[in-house]
Amino acid sequence: xxxxxxxxxxxxxxxxxxxxxxxxxxxxxxxxxxxxxxxxxxxxxxxxxxxxxxxxxxxxxxxxxxxxxxxxxxxxxxxxxxxxxxxxxxxxxxxxxxxxxxxxxxxxxxxxxxxxxxxxxxxxxxxxxxxxxxxxxxxxxxxxxxxxxxxxxxxxxxxxxxxxxxxxxxxxxxxxxxxxxxxxxxxxxxxxxxxxxxxxxxxxxxxxxxxxxxxxxxxxxxxxxxxxxxxxxxxxxxxxxxxxxxxxxxxxxxxxxxxxxxxxxxxxxxxxxxxxxxxxxxxxxxxxxxxxxxxxxxxxxxxxxxxxxxxxxxxxxxxxxxxxxxxxxxxxxxxxxxxxxxxxxxxxxxxxxxxxxxxxxxxxxxxxxxxxxxxxxxxxxxxxxxxxxxxxxxxxxxxxxxxxxxxxxxxxxxxxxxxxxxxxxxxxx
Length: 429
Hints:
This protein has 19 helices and 10 strands. By secondary structure, it is α+β, with helices and mostly antiparallel strands. The protein folds into 3 domains: 5-274, no CATH class; 280-349; 370-425, no CATH class. The strands form 3 sheets. Strands 1-2-4-5 form a 4-stranded antiparallel beta sheet. A hairpin with a 6-residue loop joins strand 9 (256-262) and strand 10 (269-274).
């Protein structure tokens, strides 16, 4: 079985429910549904409660950090709580630091077994596979509790709390293959409400056909779609209300063209038609540089006006001797982040460029985006002080490949990390 399918199955099997909120007592669930020609049975459990709503934002941020770090072979990343909140699109305040800890616990504790089967006409029997997996193999955070009477209750993270995450191998492999990049971070941030973001994630996963292209239309039995969205067991009017709120937001943003219900009750059907269609020529140009088809089609559909100038910028850097750790990842990053790569997409007036942000906001964004700054932060956490000026200077002068090696090294346990970083930088830290 193609290892990449695990990331799609995470969404296709409704592991992160579209619900905005769920009680902490909701620790197990089971759903059966048919999508296309495949039948699914999902049996999930989560000691700290089923992931839902904004947990999808946190997981996407973790995937982004892992990808930007060069997808280290250790399958592990390390960052601060402030960085993770910034990348998740949430304000840095006490309430969100408490939410972040609870979200990480839900994501780290969820495990599920999925049986996927399809009838083989020639052999006269159902064939498929049974997979038992999770998302996070190991997590370690530094947290605290106020007061001395109840040390294990009300624990929370702080701005500088280090977070170390190790993904399960199959999930890390799916990130290396770029499948999480079928999601448009800009659209996710504009959607606002958790239900709309969660439904967008589910729809994007189901749009990927067996050939890797994005479907322009999806038609499902309503009861099956409820199961795929993690709404199994809900009253039909409540489930439809939850979906309809998200539908309106996705139509307003131009992602969905139409949503139609046909028939009555759970036996009815729901039909989605999508607004954007990718231009084949742009898709081909992206795939020539190693971008997978579903990601290439997503980029060409979401940002067609950026593809050509982004590829031009990448080609210019390659021509000057630049050697990226991953060409495909760099191409995707260039399309997603025009300002970072120094070009303005055609048709966008200079006056529409966002106003200058406060220094505090810029620092938070740079910490979440610049791997060199991430390295400095992690070194400061491991050393208990800022790294030396010489170490910072050498780090700044490294090429992208060397930065990736240092970023991977600094993510290891403290003693091993410091030893490796000293050797790579060849200076006193």
